[in-house]
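Need tokens for this chain, all 148 residues.
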Amino acid sequence: MPDKNIIQDERAAIGLPIRMVVLTIIGMIGFAVIVSAIVNAPTAPRPMYATSNVTSITLSGESGNTGILEITVSNFDGEPIGGCNVVLRDPSGTVAAGGLTDSSGQVQMQLMNISLPIGKREGYITIKTMADGYLENNDEHFVKVTRG
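Here are the structure tokens for all 148 residues:
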């Protein structure tokens, strides 16, 4: 077997530069895909909170209206959340109202002919708020309702 010196044998180097370029490009594409997946990963939803201008309502009879409830929806930092869906339910769960917050995170709503469950003297209006990028907020004790 003849002794060949690899340095003098040019057949090993044929096509080597193009292979290096192709593998480098493929590696860079793979790296870009991985970085893109990391950067564009969805963020965890953040909590939000709802507050009202009233904390309790007294019904004079068996049923009544809430009056205008001014509801403000904000995030943990106190920044308003615009475009948030807000759903209110009366204590008996039969009357509901829905609305959408404006850019300042506020919506005005009114529940008509609300009533308490049979045999109860007090109950609560519940609220459910939903917005993209935020955890759904359910408050079963949003505004207290009592029979006067």
